[in-house]
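Hypothesis: this fold can be encoded by more than one sequence.
Test: take the structure tokens below, design a sequence, compare later.
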């Protein structure tokens, strides 16, 4: 059960205390994409999310985005992340730890410097913990999501998570 228990759970992405994370020595932020940074299949970031990413980069954080999905080549999310210099790791096979470790290598960070921020216990938290990372669970932005994610949500509720 420890592997699916996040180190922190917050009420929204805005409630993550990034200054405190920096003060604790965390330098690499590994974000989930769908329903964490943007709506599932929305194709673009909301303006506040884009502002947040720019602010975090300006504060010195290294950022990567992981998703189990494959984005279209012409996706605005893909081009926005490229413009920001933020690596996008598609088909990350979360919760397996390999994608998280690859993101850390790309960012030049150690597991002790990494934080996973995502909306799912069974992909983001489990994978992050298996990779030795600090984990922060946020609520999903929307109830609209992939079928397999809906199955995960049922499992999460059986494990005691309330949305």
């Amino acid at each position: 059960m420890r592997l699916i228990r996040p180190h922190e759970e917050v009420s929204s992405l805005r409630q993550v205390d990034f200054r405190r994370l920096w003060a604790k020595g965390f330098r690499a932020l590994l974000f989930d994409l769908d329903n964490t940074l943007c709506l599932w299949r929305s194709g673009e970031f909301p303006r506040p999310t884009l502002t947040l990413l720019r602010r975090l980069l300006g504060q010195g954080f290294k950022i990567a985005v992981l998703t189990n999905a494959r984005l279209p080549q012409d996706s605005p999310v893909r081009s926005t992340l490229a413009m920001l210099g933020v690596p996008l790791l598609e088909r990350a096979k979360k919760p397996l730890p390999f994608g998280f470790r690859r993101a850390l290598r790309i960012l030049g960070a150690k597991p002790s410097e990494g934080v996973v921020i995502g909306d799912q216990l069974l992909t983001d938290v489990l994978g992050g913990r298996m990779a030795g990372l600090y984990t922060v669970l946020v609520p999903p932005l929307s109830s609209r999501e992939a079928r397999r994610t809906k199955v995960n949500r049922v499992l999460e509720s059986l494990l005691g998570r309330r949305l």
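The CA atoms of residues 42 and 55 lie 22 Å apart. The mean pLDDT is 89.
Hypothesis status: open.
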